Amino acid sequence: MANLGIPRNTIEILQRYHFNFQKKYGQNFLVDVNVLDRIIAAAEITREDCVLEIGPGIGTMTQYLAESAREVVAVEIDRNLIPILEDTLSGYDNVTVINEDILKLDIRKIVEERNGGEPVKVVANLPYYITTPIIMGLFESKVPLKSITIMVQKEVADRMQVGPGTKDYGALSLAVQYYAKPEIVANVPPNCFIPRPNVGSAVIRLTRYDTPTVRVQDERKMFSLIRASFNQRRKTLVNGLCNAAELRLSKERVTGVLEEMGLPPAIRGEALTLEQFARLSDLL
């Protein structure tokens, strides 16, 4: 099989199939064997593993995964890529390609059928606009996962691993850090892709915690509070929470709870740690 990590092989396949890039799917195909090796190493893929790959594209990473894993289930939304994948993956009998939108797929069922309900590893090269819904969907649906190793826009990777008080800290940072340990494993410049994106990318590995690091009575309630407190970044936490109609909170109530926590009434959401949000949620 031609190694698609080599640019000329990717170009040849794209020309052979007269493939047109779809802007709506944010398609940028990785063409760098070193980065591909780094991803496989970071995801710690072994012969025991069942891997769920999101957005295989023309099958570049899929080939590498198939060489290392027991089984790969690749979910691709663009049906124009399916004939190409049938071609580039024809040499592997341990790959299943599903032409579907990952956000509409019953992933738990796939894990049940393909891996006996045991945790899978997720590997993906995700377009920027859909990174957060996919990651949160995987975590919130409680699909059995060991880790998610993904290529995302550099700025999004940074946002996932920063702490309170920084400009990138927000709802995504808190959500990711509640469920997993984030670790950037590689920075990837635009020239590693066809076509070249306008921004730098990074590979980040999210290692799933067996149980969240923070205890909270009502997970959903806590995340509603977190979202509301970052909806209007410049506002104080009190105003952010009181402006969120669905929370139905009064200023007196929120100020009282902040006081009980030893926090000033003018504090902003970006100053609170995950533990403090959990406590705030429990007290409210």
Bin the helical content. Answer: 25-40%
Rg on CA atoms, Å:
21 Å
The pLDDT mean sits at: 94
Shape: elongated
Number of domains: 2
Report the major sheet: 7 strands, mixed
* H-E order: HEHEHEHEHEHEHHEEEHHHH
CATH superfamily of the largest domain: Vaccinia Virus protein VP39
Contiguous uncertain segments of 5+ residues = none
Strand content: 15-25%
Tell me the span between the first and last alpha carbons: 59 Å
**Structural category:** alpha/beta
Q: Please write the CATH class name of the largest domain.
A: Alpha Beta
Count all strands and give the number. Answer: 9
CATH architecture annotation name of the largest domain: 3-Layer(aba) Sandwich
- What is the number of helical segments per DSSP (H or I, 4+ residues)? 12
Strand order of the largest sheet: 4-3-2-5-6-9-7
Question: What do you see in this structure?
Answer:
This protein has two domains: 7-208, Vaccinia Virus protein VP39 (Rossmann fold), CATH 3.40.50.150; 219-283, rRNA adenine dimethylase, C-terminal domain (Helicase, Ruva Protein, domain 3), CATH 1.10.8.100. The protein is 40% helix and 18% strand. It has helices at residues 7-16, 33-43, 60-68, 82-88, 107-115, 131-140, 154-161, 171-179, 219-231, 237-243, 251-260, 274-283, and strands at residues 29-30, 50-54, 71-76, 95-99, 120-125, 145-153, 180-188, 193-194, 201-208. It starts with 6 loop residues before the first helix and ends with a helix. The mean pLDDT is 94.
